[in-house]
Amino acid sequence: MTTIDKVIFKLASVIFLIFFLFTNSEAQNTTVLLSEINNEWSLIFNKSKDLELNELIINQEKIAAESLRNNDTLGIVNAFNKLGGVYCNQVNYEKAYSYYWDALLLADQIHEREATARSYIGLGILYSLYERREDALIYYMKALVIHQELVNKNKKYIQGLRSNYFQIAVHYRYENNVKAARSYLEKSRKLAFFQKKNVLFIDAEEGYLNILERKYKRAEYILLPLEDEIKSTTPAYTVVYYSLLGDLYKGMQQFKRSTSYYLLAIKAAKSYRKHLNFIPDIYKKLSSNSTALKQQSNATSYLFYALTLEEHLYSSKSTKNQFLFEIKDKYRKVQEEQKTLQLKQTLHQLKQDEKIWFLKTILLITSILLIVIIAMVWARTIRNKHKAERLLLQQQRILEVKSNTEIMAVKNKELTGSTLQLVAKDELLVSIKDKLTFLYQENKLIDIKRLIKEIDLNKDQSWLAFETRFNAVNKEFYKVLCSQYPNLKPYDLRICALIKLDFTTKEMAKLLGISAESANTSRYRLRKKLNLNKDVNLAEFIRAL
Fold first, then answer.
1. Which of 29, 505, 509, 517 measures 20 to 30 Å from 243, CA to CA?
2. Is 444 helix (H, G, I), strand (E, B) or coil?
3. Crossing angle for the helix pair 490-500 and 516-529, nearest 10 degrees?
4. What distance in Å separates the CA atoms of residue 200 and residue 271, rounded to the nearest whole number?
5. What is the pTM of this model?
6. Considering Cα of 381, then 382, then 386, then 387, what sign does the dihedral take?
7. How far apart are CA 62 and CA 334, in angstroms?
8. Which of 408, 401, 458, 470 shows the shortest CA–CA distance to 433?
9. Nearest in space to 144 (alpha carbons), one of 125, 126, 120
10. Cβ(509)–Cβ(426) under 8 Å?
């Protein structure tokens, strides 16, 4: 039905109701009908004592109060959004509207985008119920922008985007814009497949679009298989589902079957206390079916029910809903007030910040300069200290090297002198030995032989004393030499020691008691054992060890 058709239908219904009310013969029936509708729909008239719904409201109000005590603004926002949904299902649109607006204002203050989107959708639903479709679409689209931004940042928000697409599809279906409705419905379906979610509601909505296109067989093919799953998983949705089947068979002019489904929808609404906003339209459709079936009494009763409930829910004469037709953009006003206040605060803050920034800049520059000066003084002090320490250390090392060199030179001179004395002594002993040997050969005296042995022993002890003193002066010489050339024998070590002390070949020959040629041979053999090339000076090599 177009908007003009709906207006004509309402006018005709009101005229019929006035005629009905003022007909004397029907006055008593009217009283009875009013009594019946008050009893049957106490939920809509806010006379319900539904413990389940009341308990749900109490729980959410407790959560909101506890969140307030804990300064948990997001907790308050979530509780307000849930309360808005509960009151919307109870058709208490005044409270639903208030809670959604309060949630929106708080969510905007804390920049909680997902909660803001939920508030927008709730408000869009309320505007849609009052057929303010353009306003409703504005809020749906605001929510859509937020959900798309959130999904681009994090895929966990896909559920919200999917529901948003579905709600926009429903909006366009109310507008009879099947093409746009199906476009958004397919977007919702794609996201459902991506999440591996149930597409039950999407299929039901697709069936509804086929009804609008008068593709009744196709709609029946889609809708009928859904009944068992809907009843088992989301029984409250049977209100909508049976209403769709009622529309399907009404379109197929199967009025009795259509009526039975409409009555099932009403029964489900009473049982589950959900989707109560469907009831006035269902009664209108029942009235139309009864007229087609020539059940005028039923048609009149159903129409009376429809108009009475609609009057209570949506009429501007209802004190409960009158304010909704004088809606002021509270959100915009509050935002403007906040922006004005924020602008003043910002200007004041900028002035304060400018002063603080100036003082901070001066303090920072002063601090930096002071730190730089201290660092420079400290660095110069440390550098001079290290320079003095390095200089002192170098001087100490030079003195130590010089002292060690001088001490080594003195000791080597002493060692050389004592060695030369040893050579002289050995020469004397050799001369004595030769003479004694001659005497022994001549006289064959035993005492002379003993004396010769004592001279040889004295000579060996002299070498032992030499090596001891040499090791004391040149502590690492033998150790390094033996580690690098382990094949050297004690005789070779003596040759090395004498070469280190700058003994000539003749001096070495006298000290060792051998000829000069033998001394040269010993030097030659030592070069081979040390693996020295011809161009390497033996004396320099040994002194370098």
1. 29
2. coil
3. 100
4. 21
5. 0.55
6. negative
7. 26
8. 458
9. 120
10. no
CA 102 to CA 76: how far, in whole Å? 10
Q: Which residue has the tokens 């429809």?
A: 306
Q: In whole angstroms, give the CA distance from residue 204 to residue 226.
A: 8
**pLDDT by residue for the chain (545 residues), tens digit each?**
445 555 455 545 545 554 444 444 444 454 555 555 555 666 565 545 555 567 778 888 888 888 888 888 999 999 999 999 888 877 788 888 889 999 999 998 889 999 999 999 999 999 988 888 899 999 999 999 999 999 999 988 899 999 999 999 999 999 999 999 999 999 999 999 888 888 999 999 999 999 999 999 999 999 999 999 999 999 999 999 999 999 999 999 999 999 999 999 999 988 888 888 888 899 999 999 999 999 988 888 888 888 888 877 765 445 555 455 454 455 556 655 665 666 566 556 767 777 788 888 888 888 888 888 888 888 888 888 888 788 878 777 776 766 566 566 656 656 665 665 666 666 666 767 776 677 667 665 565 666 666 565 555 556 666 776 777 777 778 788 888 888 888 888 888 888 888 888 887 887 777 788 888 888 888 888 888 888 888 888 888 87
Alpha-carbon distance of 339 to 362, in angstroms, equals 33
Q: Identify whether the C-beta of residue 125 lies closer than 8 Å to the C-beta of residue 135.
A: no
DSSP structure class, residue 293? T
Tokens of 513: 């008691």
Query: Rounded to 10 degrees, what is the CA torsion of 463, 467, 470, 471?
Result: -170
What is the C-alpha separation between 249 and 88, in angstroms, rounded?
29
Distance CA 90, CA 77 (A): 20
User: How many C-beta atoms surround the C-beta of residue 110 within 10 A?
Assistant: 13
Tokens of 432: 């004595």
Spatial contact of 206 and 220, defined as CB atoms under 8 Å apart: no
Query: What token pair was written down for 25?
Result: 């013969």
Contact at 8 Å (CB) between 531 and 488? no
